[in-house]
Structure prediction request, 323 residues.
Amino acid sequence: MDDTKLRPQNRTWHRMFAAGMAGTAALITGLSTGVNTGTHAWATAQEATTTEPILRVSLNSEAAGKPNDTGSADRVAANTAPAAAPHPLDPALLFAEEKLRHLEQNIHDYQAVMIKQERIGGTLMPAEYMNIKVRNRRQRPNGGQPFSIYLRFLRPNAIKGREVIYVEGRNDGNLVAHEGGVLGMIRVNLAPTGTLAMRGQRYPITDAGIENLVRKLIERGERDRQTGQCQVDFFENAKVMDRVCTMIQVKHDVEKEPLDFHIGRIYIDDEHQVPIRYEAYLWPSPGEKDLPLLESYTYAKLKINVGLTDKDFDPSNKDYEFP
Prediction:
């Protein structure tokens, strides 16, 4: 694996960023290859792996020119003094906005196995596995295509068999769902942000999906941009299962409002050019060695533009088990 070679789409971005930073920051070259850093172990016992960062952006002037924890790296150091100086989050935001445009223009629907794990009320919940189908909101010559989502939960056993459908603007704005097993005889309609629908969830179903994830991360990045210090690393050849990705890591050393996480990582599939995993970690307590996971979302076995129709989001679909 040659960590020093940028994929074609990354060369373009890299030249754009280097030009934009000229005169305001220093780009230091000389990568060390073959160094791996691990991430939080999944419930599948597989790891997302990374190599040495291809680019580091830091607002911490003391860190300029020093190697990172895993070896030497390209580094760009920016000071907080000039108001017009680029912020470390700027390249990540530009990268995310580029991927959002790609999603909006090219990705109309997809299906995957989603793996979700969240910390709720201070407790890290078990990882949940589910089949997911998503049709993105689009305007069509013959009318609008509403945001639509179907979920079928696979495990753990406590929620196995649960099915949920939400179609924007239909069913009085409610999701429709049923549980698995003996409770599967009852179909319920719930407000997406209501108490029952939100039980054991960090976000409502209306925020689910890859495109919504990117939008939320851009909003969060623009907000966090105002808080000051952070460090941003870009990694090539990160792997999520068998998918080769570019990984962006954002690190906030100081815990303060409105920051949500200590370390956040987003993995962009190099082939599909869409995020397939996001993970965020809290600040460790004194003496705590492992970073406490806040949330993670993985889209495995992703299939894009499969031609989903209204039938895929209809509870009367004979392939589904709605009562």
